[in-house]
Amino acid sequence: MNILVALPIAIPVAAAAAALLVHLRLRLQRILSVGAVAGATAAAALLLVHVERSGTAVVSVGGWEPPVGIVLVADLFSALLLLVAMITVLAVLVFALGQLERAVEERYFHPLYLVLTVGVSASFLTGDLFNLFVAFEVMLIASYVLLTLTGRSEQVRPAMTYVVVSLLSSTLFITGIALVYAATGTVNMADLGQRLADVPGALRAGLAALFLVVFGIKAAIFPLFFWLPDSYPTAPAAVTAVFAGLLTKIGVYAIIRTQTVVFGSSDGGADTLILFLAGATMLVGVLGAIAQDDVKRILSFHIVSQIGYMVFGLGLFSVAGLAATTVFIIHHMPVKTSLFLVGGIVEKVTGTGALTRLGGMVHRIPMTAGLFMVPALSLAGLPPFSGFYGKLGLVQAGIQQQRFLVVAVSLLVSVLTLFSMAKIWTGVFWGDVDQPEVAAAPAKPGRTVPRLMTTATVGLVGVTVVIALAAEPLFQLSRRAAADLIQPGGYIEAVLGAAR
Amino acid sequence: MTSLILETGTRAVFHTILVFSVFLLFAGHNAPGGGFIGGLVAGAALVLRFVAYGSQDAARTVRARPETVLGAGVFAAAASAIAPWFAGGQLLESRLWALTLPLLGTIKATSVLVFDVGVYFVVVGLVLAVLVTLGGELDS
């Protein structure tokens, strides 16, 4: 059933084309895009089951065998992340149907969103570096337009930063690929995993560092995160939510994939460097969040801080660390996205996201308050919620390998995250609804929340609860995925073995 | 501003350029050319009309809307990627047929041509979209 590997890419491509063809009929576009994303999600679920049962699935596109031809590869790690990403994409799409104004939606939202979906699934499924670049570009080009969808000047200015930074990172990326090709003569990741072993150590370390910078920009790692809190909050809530949940995480996925399968495990102190970056990313992100006064801006800084945790697990270069990172990414995608969705609902109801002008929302939209509570506590890592398990795994792995400093930083950052979530809670939901500031807020808005927005948020919060309940089997899967990353022999064999 | 020389010159070469772009499209599978180049040449022909007659004319020349041209192109390319799987092959797999026709001699046709035609339409659609949206201001 190797077609399953290609379906999460093929379905949205075809649907994006069809949505362009019927661009004058919004209803049909909506049916197309929801259908396509749901189809891609179903394919991703089947793919995960398939990979779990019978191991890494490989498709040689066009019938050309690797390492010459292009391959799509789904191992346990990418299949797991792909499924969660597709669920998140689906939830945000449903939310967007309720949130976006008709005029904005008609401005090619659906074709663009589907192209973004293509980029996301292609990034997870590609088996060679050059196509990873292509997938990133597909995703970025759609994201440039989505970010400026309403075309207001306060969106265009920060979006310029985003475009320039992304272009710079893409240039470095393509340069890196050229250097890798010059050194080894291949861009197939599995093939690289073997051939880079023959490359001189210094050159290999330099290439690894270059890719760390490239993906570090995409993933918003310290000190390359500055563009993120500036550009994300200005887009429509649904767009910010999907960017926040997915795009940086794909950067992290690329870091993990290249640093394990391609460049092999740690040597020459790379692990200490990565752990330092992880700690700094966590700390700077959370401190930035505390200084902010707007719901979306606070949440944007938290993206940075949480990326630190994911990199932390990678820096340990152990099965336990990478397994915890996998669980953490899986938890983070729906949690972060649902927080932004709640922020979107608050904005829809009140017309603002500024903490000082909000208050008493627990009386006006009690259900939304509840919906905020679950992912917020989960983000801070409190026990019954999904964030706890990932963090617990990270801390345990860190202590096992005696990396006490970064463990201490991560615990401190957890406390600060809780503080910052409490700040949103008291600012937005608690207090009196009749504060003069609220009355003065420019209430252009619908008093009630569109049902689709609530449905999507409830669904996504439900997913985070399921992740928490299924923590044990999830950990087992992640441990297997991590073992495959640490010992990439199976991956390499699956890809190159297809040639025989 | 209208220029008689430019308008007459455009009328003289427009169709020749389009025929040349189709030639490039078909030549593409084993000679210089292809969907992208062909599309660019066709796009250049449209730009020439745009310069000579204004943006409304470019939109009138291609009756379909830019979105439709673009969408049809992407759809053709996607279909040519998926279709081989239904025929029992790999995704994007291609086939080559050689036909011997009277008068014309041997003609080779590949299934990649569908993909190339898709690319051609995408490029033309993009040029059209640029002319209609960005160029619309120039008329007034």
Question: If you compute it from the alpha carbons, what radius of gyration of chain A comes out, rounded to the nearest whole angstrom?
Answer: 22 Å
What can be said about the biggest beta sheet of chain B? 2 strands, antiparallel
Q: Please tell me what the overall shape of chain B is.
A: flat
Number of domains of chain A: 1
- Side-by-side strand order of the widest sheet of chain B: 1-2
Poorly predicted regions of chain B: none
- Major sheet of chain A: order of its strands? 1-2
Report the portion of residues of chain B in β strands. 5-15%
- Helicity range of the residues of chain B? 55-70%
Structural shape of chain A: globular
Number of helical regions of chain A: 22
Describe the structure.
The complex is a heterodimer of chains A (500) and B (140). Chain A is mainly α and 500 residues long. Chain A has one domain (3-497). Chain A has 22 helices and 2 strands. Chain A has a two-stranded antiparallel ribbon with strand order 1-2. Chain B is mainly α and 140 residues long. Chain B has one domain (4-134). Chain B has helices at residues 4-27, 35-53, 55-61, 66-86, 112-133, 136-139; strands spanning 96-101, 105-110. Chain B has a two-stranded antiparallel sheet. In chain B, helix 4 (66-86) runs antiparallel to helix 5 (112-133). The longest helix of chain B is centred in the first third of the chain and has 24 residues, at 4-27. Chain B is flat. Classes of the chains: A mainly alpha (500), B mainly alpha (140). The A-B interface holds A 3, 6, 10, 13-14, 16-21, 23, 59-63, 108, 111 and B 65, 67-68, 70-75, 77-79, 81-82, 85, 89-94.
